[in-house]
Specification:
Length: 176
């Protein structure tokens, strides 16, 4: 029995990237529905509290739960809108080998690594929305900065090759 080389391992992991992205998207849909349901119940609780008390109730947590739930339900649309906002286009070239019909081993490895990083980017983007739900809690310090960092970092990780091309063209370098 021979041991697989690193290229074979990367290609096998690369084959699992798209199904995992679909799974993360499905989890985002389900979580979005749960957050919206939670927001409705929190609004009901705020309404009940306002009827029994003469003090102002805090609407921040239910509204943030509802908004985050909507963002997670519309994840592909939000991701495309974020890509358009940051990169100026939704049709980014992505990584292609010099000869797509006969790529070298290093080009296959680079493509596999960039696909794995793409999966990490989607997970980070979704996690950023989960972190932003904590804005309504009084105890969650720095949730906005952490959430936005995950959102932008996930977007840049998903489009890593294109991000490197933009940095390369902006600074006049030849990294990639």
């Amino acid at each position: 029995m021979t041991m697989p080389d690193i290229i074979t391992i990367l290609v096998n992991i690369q084959a699992l990237v798209e199904p995992f992205i679909f799974m993360v998207t499905a989890v985002a849909y389900i979580s979005g529905v749960c957050f919206m349901t939670l927001g409705v119940f929190q609004l009901k609780k705020v309404g009940d509290y306002r009827q029994s008390q003469y003090q102002a109730a805090d609407f921040k947590a239910p509204i943030i739960s509802l908004l985050t739930g909507m963002m997670l339900v519309y994840l592909p649309t939000i991701f495309k809108a974020s890509t358009m906002t940051v990169f100026g286009s939704t049709s980014l070239p992505g990584y292609l080998p010099n000869d797509p019909t006969n790529p070298t081993e290093i080009e296959v490895a680079i493509g596999a690594i960039l696909d794995i990083i793409r999966l990490v980017g989607v997970v980070a983007f979704v996690r950023g929305w989960f972190i932003l739900t904590k804005i309504g809690d009084a105890s969650a310090g720095g949730a906005i900065s952490k959430g936005l960092t995950h959102l932008l970092g996930g977007l840049f990780a998903y489009h890593m090759y294109d991000f490197f091309l933009i940095v390369e063209n902006t600074l006049g370098l030849s990294l990639v």
